[in-house]
Specification:
The protein is mostly beta strands and 120 residues long. The chain has two helices and nine strands, in the order ββααβββββββ. The protein has a nine-stranded antiparallel beta sheet. It is globular and about 40 Å long.
Length: 120
């Protein structure tokens, strides 16, 4: 895995290779049951009650718990091209729903999928 944060530009770019087919990785990014299973960890930050309307203009949301308390994240689906692309807005309650954009791209590679994330 590689990750680069550019604080001045307010961006994060991360890439990881996952030993799973692009369809399975895409499903993990878009299925509410799958998202609740892997997003966060019980001792730090846990998400639940995911909802996702997987189409451009569709809304998504989840609830979150951490040691600091409860919160919520919401957003809108900007682009979707299964299993290659997902772009959504990210609007967390703890930042007063300030909007940023996350773009996931998935590429089939030997042994699985290369997942790239660009958050701006």
């Amino acid at each position: 895995m590689t990750a680069v944060a550019d604080v001045q530009a307010r961006t994060v770019h991360a890439t990881v290779e996952i030993a799973a087919a692009p369809d399975a990785v895409f499903r993990a990014l878009t299925d509410p049951d799958e998202l609740a299973r892997w997003w966060g960890s019980p001792d730090l930050y846990q998400t639940h009650d995911w909802e996702l309307d997987l189409r451009p203009g569709g809304k998504w949301s989840c609830q979150a718990r951490s040691a600091e308390g409860a919160g919520a994240v919401r957003g809108e689906v900007l682009a979707v091209d299964p299993p290659r692309l997902l772009e959504v807005t990210w609007e967390p309650s703890w930042e007063e729903y300030k909007r940023s954009i996350i773009r996931y791209t998935l590429e089939k590679v030997p042994g699985g999928t290369r997942l790239s994330l660009f958050h701006r």
